[in-house]
Write a structure and sequence with these properties.
12 strands; Beta-Lactamase; alpha+beta; two-stranded antiparallel sheet; Beta-lactamase
């Protein structure tokens, strides 16, 4: 068994910017039609300087998320960037990595797994509709974890992994290294711990990698599903991202997240103004702010594309 060891410097969480002020010192912008083709391979610092120089004369959306990054999916070119290298808790965005580790292991998706007392959330005390004794297939647990952010489903997936939860978390961190998520650390498969940390920059790599898995794309963007409880009762679950129901959006992958330390988080792959993009929004204020930020990004990109000289 490969072991994983990593050390992160102590993280000092930045103070939130005051509501209503545009954090120009922390916000950068890249126009894909302006930046050279090699910008995606440049250092974050150099890229940020070039992006900032392109801001003059452009009206950028005032996002309420503390960190945000929008990139072109194919080239990796940044379109909008804000605090992209700030290390912060990521809550249930963690479950995207959980799903990849499960699928990489090639485990039987039809195997039936029992929810046990071990799957209770003793850290945050969150509730779950999956009662102890519920029996679901591994595919159903993946479905609930990705679409509805069901914590007991994610915990059960890590618990029954060969070698148990400890081996599962080690594999999560090894996978992060393999895809270049150098400022990321995982400590559980649910995201309930604030020890699951990453950056907006790293999370674009997570989404890009997860997009290669057809089942993750399918389950994370499903609008709803019914499962059976321990007494045979039907339980309906819906997607935690309301945008997947919107006819105005074309979303190929989606995951939300929330714990108090992380704020409201959202990652998506979507097609906007004819371009496939990856959107990362972290530590949004208020329950609906991440949705508002996503819509602001969409309107801004569509306006830019329709403006004079757009091609």
């Amino acid at each position: 068994m490969m072991t994983y060891r990593t050390t992160l410097n102590p993280v000092r969480w930045p103070a939130r910017p005051r509501r209503g002020l545009l954090p120009t010192a922390l916000l950068t912008l890249a126009c894909a039609l302006i930046l050279p083709a090699g910008v995606a391979a440049q250092s974050p610092e150099r890229s940020a300087r070039q992006v900032k120089s392109a801001m003059v004369g452009n009206t950028v959306p005032d996002l309420k998320s503390s960190a945000a990054l929008v990139i072109e999916q194919g080239s990796g070119r940044p379109i909008y960037a804000k605090n992209v290298d700030t290390v912060t808790p990521i809550a249930s965005i963690t479950k995207v990595m959980t799903a990849m580790v499960v699928l990489d292991a090639g485990l039987d998706l039809d195997e039936r797994i029992v929810i046990t007392e071990d799957d209770r959330d003793l850290l945050k005390g969150t509730r779950s509709r999956l009662a102890i004794g519920t029996v679901l297939t591994r595919r159903e647990l993946l479905h609930l974890a990705l679409m509805a952010s069901e914590n007991r489903a994610a915990d059960a997936l890590t618990r029954v992994y060969p070698g148990g939860t400890r081996a599962f978390v080690a594999t999560m961190n090894q996978k992060a290294i393999e895809i270049g998520m150098w400022r990321t650390r995982f400590v559980d498969g649910t995201g309930l711990s604030s020890g699951n940390v990453s950056t907006a920059q790293d999370l674009t790599k997570l989404v890009a990698e997860a997009f290669k898995y057809p089942l993750i794309r399918e389950l994370s963007t499903d609008t709803g599903v019914h499962v059976r409880g321990p007494r045979g009762q039907a339980m309906q679950y819906v997607n935690s991202n309301r945008l997947v129901n919107s006819p105005d959006w074309r979303i190929g992958l989606s995951k939300t997240g929330y714990i108090s330390e992380a704020g409201r988080c959202l990652v998506m792959q979507a097609r906007i103004a004819g371009k496939p993009v990856i959107i990362v929004l972290l530590d949004s204020w208020g329950k609906l702010t991440r949705i508002g930020d996503a819509n602001r990004i969409k309107r801004w990109m569509e306006t830019r594309n329709a403006g004079p000289g757009a091609g």
